[in-house]
Design goal:
TIM Barrel; five-stranded parallel sheet; three-stranded antiparallel sheet; 2 domains; alpha/beta; single chain
């Protein structure tokens, strides 16, 4: 049971059911103690089914929480920790515009795009195409919780700089590897029987899983639920996305991002795309 109020959020511990409370100040204090490079302000991530009235109230409360986060960090926060505000507003154009203006004027070190982005990729792209141009051109821009290959490339094209997502590790836990295969959402299911397949997960990938093991062995480990499989697939998936972003950055520098994106979306590996 979660209860959201002006002061903060009350919820029950999943361990013992005890009552817990977190406020904007507590959130910033935790991030300060962790020593993270970036601290995200306290906000509510509204679900896709929230109506406009609730989304508006939530956005306004998030803006008030932003002020409290900045006040706490200004007095107690680590000197070298950046604070990012979060644009809310759901799928509603007027609310996104209002939130983007409020966050941009707040004096934050960077701006994240959060909240529900819609029911599907098409709606998400629409929200991002609206929101990204509203943000200051010189502010670091962070897209929260999005990490599919096609979505990363689309976000980069819109001028977004930073992304975070559990996709590479979550897929690994379920025996799935990222591969240059757009028809299958860039995924390879190693829980299937790959007996006799001596190929790496992805030819040319520099990760340890691809350099030293083949699909046969990794499939066996995954189907046997060996934790070594999870570790190797985590290393592979993180390497794959690191390669994707590294080569995207290089393409931006020489003005070839569009062709690089097209090559990846047509099935080229990030380290081969031109």
């Amino acid at each position: 049971m979660v209860s959201i109020g002006e002061e903060g959020v009350r919820f029950k511990s999943y361990k013992d059911g005890s009552s817990l409370f977190i406020s904007p100040e507590v959130s910033m204090e935790v991030q300060a103690k962790l020593g993270s490079d970036i601290a995200l302000v306290f906000d509510e991530c509204t679900p896709y089914h929230a109506d406009r009235e609730y989304t508006a109230r939530s956005m306004e409360r998030t803006h008030r929480w932003l002020d409290r986060c900045l006040d706490w960090h200004g007095e107690h926060g680590p000197e070298r920790q950046a604070v990012f505000g979060i644009v809310q507003g759901g799928v509603h154009e007027d609310l996104r515009r209002e939130s983007a203006a409020a966050i941009s004027a707040a004096g934050v070190d960077g701006i994240a795009i959060g909240g529900t982005l819609g029911r599907d990729k098409e709606e998400m792209r629409g929200v991002l195409e609206l929101t990204a141009p509203l943000l200051p051109i010189d502010a670091p821009k962070h897209l929260l919780g999005i990490g599919d290959v096609d979505d990363l490339l689309a976000g980069i094209a819109l001028g977004l700089d930073l992304f975070d997502c559990a996709i590479p590790t979550r897929l690994a836990r379920h025996g799935t590897a990222l591969v240059p295969d757009p028809e299958n959402r860039f995924r390879l299911d190693l829980r299937k029987d790959w007996t006799g397949d001596r190929n790496p997960i992805a030819e040319g990938c520099p990760c340890p899983a691809c350099q030293y093991h083949d699909r046969d062995y990794l499939s066996y480990l995954s189907r046997a639920e060996e934790l070594t499989a999870v570790r190797l697939l985590c290393l592979h998936n993180l390497t794959y996305l690191h390669q994707l972003m590294t080569h995207a950055r290089a393409a931006i520098e020489v003005g070839t991002l569009a062709s690089y994106t097209g090559a990846v979306m047509n099935g080229a590996a990030p380290w081969e795309a031109r």
